[in-house]
Amino acid sequence: MEDNIIRVCRPDLDEQTRKELNEVFDKGWLGSGPKTTEFEHEFAKYVNTKYAIGCNSGTSALDMCLKVYEEEYNLQGGELITTPMTFVSDAIIAFWHNMDLTFADIEEDSLCLDPKSIIITPKTKAIVVVNSHGRLANMKAIRELIDKSGQKILLIADNAHAMFTPNANDYSDIQMWSFQAVKTMPIGDGGMITTNDEKIAKEVKRLSWLNVEKNTYDRTLGKKYTWDYDITKNNGIKAYMTDMQATIGLGQLRRLDEVLAKRRAIQSVYNEAFQNIKQIKTPMFSHTVQYYTMQCEDRDKLSEDLAENGIATSVHFKPLTEMTVYKKYKKNSLPVTDRVWLKLLSLPVYYTLKWKQVEYVIKKVRDYYLK
Q1: 3-class DSSP state for residue 117?
Q2: Would you state the torsion angle of the CA atoms of residues 39, 43, 45, 47, taken in this order, to the nearest 10 degrees?
Q3: Residue 335, φ and ψ in degrees, nearest 5
Q4: Which residue among 62, 113, 312, 354 sits deepest, i.e. has the most Cβ atoms within 10 Å of its Cβ?
Q5: How many CB atoms lie within 10 A of CB 121?
Q6: 322-336, pLDDT tens digit by residue?
C-alpha cells in the first residue's frame, strides 16, 4: 500500500526492540529458546494466568485448544458452536477435529456472541467465544447455560482482539491470543495459549513441538546437550514460537499500555466527532480498540469516497455465513448478524496515526454525510 494512504492498521516497533532483535541474530538462536520462555513468563504475569505457551499463530493456538481436550471432552463427531462475525480460524478448526459446525447470532452493540442465540444439543461439545473488537462477551451467561445443560462442554475464549482487556479470561476453560500483524500487540504473526492447569500447559507445550517430550532448547539446559528424546503421541503439530517472534513480543508487551492509551484516545475523538451524525452509530467502548468499527448508512459508498481521498477502510467482519463453504452451517436464523454487518465500517486506528490524520479522517467522514 502506498505510504501516502492512511491505512486501517499499521504495526510498528520501537528502537529498543529492533536492537534486541539484532542481539538475537548475533547470538544465533533463532528457534524456540530463552526469549520464548521469557515472553511466556512475562505474558502469563500480564494477563494473570499461571501458564502461557507461545505458538506460531492464533490459528494454531485454537487448534491446540481443541487437541489438548479432545479425549476428555470426546470432541470427535460432536458439535462446535461459534460466531459468524469472526475470522475463519474459529470455524475451520471444527473440521480439523471432525466436528459439526453451528453458528449462533451476535449482540448488536458488542458484536459478540449472544448467549440467548446459543442452542445446546446433546451433540454440543465445544463453544468458541470471540471477545470481539476488544469487548467482552457475556461469558458468565454462557457458562451458566453450559452448567444448566448438565453436559461436558469445552468453553474456549478467543482473545485475539482482547490484548489486553481486563477479565478476558473469566469463566473459560482455556484461552488463546493472537499477535498477528494487525492486532493491537503485533509481532508479525504468533499466538499464545493461557491456562491455570499445569498438566494442560505441559501437554500444549509438547503438542506445539510434534509431541516431542523435550524440545531442543530444554535439552541444552543441563550440564551438556542431551540429544535423546521420546514421542508418545502422534497428534502433535509444529507450531512453536520462535525467539525472533518472542523478542518482538517482549518489546510490544513493554509498551502495550501506552499503545492502548493512544488507541482509546483516537476512539474517544472519533466518537465525539460522529455522535451527532444521524447516519452513524458509534461503537461501544473497547479497551483495546482492535478495530474502530462504526455502523453507518451508505457504508460502501462512504468507503469508496474515503478511498478516493486516500483513506483506507475495511469491514470487520463479512460474516462467515456469507462465505460459500460456510453457508450450509447457518442452521438457524441470525437476524442481528444479517442486518448489522451491512453497516459495519472500520476506520484507521493505530499507535503511529498522527492527530492531523485523525482530523483528516473525521473531516472526510463528516463532509460525506453533512455536505
Answers
A1: helix
A2: 180
A3: -65, -35
A4: 113
A5: 12
A6: 999 999 999 999 999
Q: Are 117 and 104 in contact (CB under 8 A)?
A: yes
Helix or strand or coil: residue 357? helix
Q: Can you list the positions of beta strands (E) in the chain?
A: 51-55, 79-82, 100-103, 124-130, 154-158, 174-178, 191-195, 280-281, 292-296, 344-347
Question: Do 29 and 243 contact (CB within 8 A), yes or no?
Answer: yes
Annotated domain spans of the chain = 15-254, 256-370
The residue written with cell numbers 460522529 in the block is 274
Please state the separation of Cα 175 from the chain's center in Å: 10
Helix or strand holding residue 114 (H, E) = none
* Cβ atoms within 10 Å, residue 340: 20
Residue with grid cell 548475533, as numbered in its chain: 26
CATH class for the region spanning 15-254: alpha beta
Query: 67-91 burial by CB neighbour count: b if 16+ within 10 A, else e?
Result: bbbbeebebeebbbbbbbbbbebbb
* Residues forming a β-bridge with 106: 113
CA–CA distance, 75 with 6 (Å, rounded to integer): 44
Global pTM reads 0.96
Ordered alpha helix ranges (H), 181-242: 198-207
Architecture of domain 256-370: Alpha-Beta Complex (3.90)
249-262 pLDDT tens trace: 999 999 999 999 99
Distance CA(370)–CA(65), nearest Å, equals 48
Q: Read off the pLDDT of residues 133-154 as tens digits, 9 standing for 90 and up.
A: 999 999 999 999 999 999 999 9
- Pick from 345, 320, 365: nearest CA to 103: 320
pLDDT digits (tens, 9 = 90+) for 77-128: 999 999 999 999 999 999 999 999 999 999 999 999 999 999 999 999 999 9
The SS3 assignment for 304 reads helix
| pLDDT of residue 223 exceeding 80 | no
Under DSSP, is residue 158 helix (H, G, I), strand (E, B) or coil?
Answer: strand
State the Cα torsion 184-186-192-194 to the nearest 10°: -30
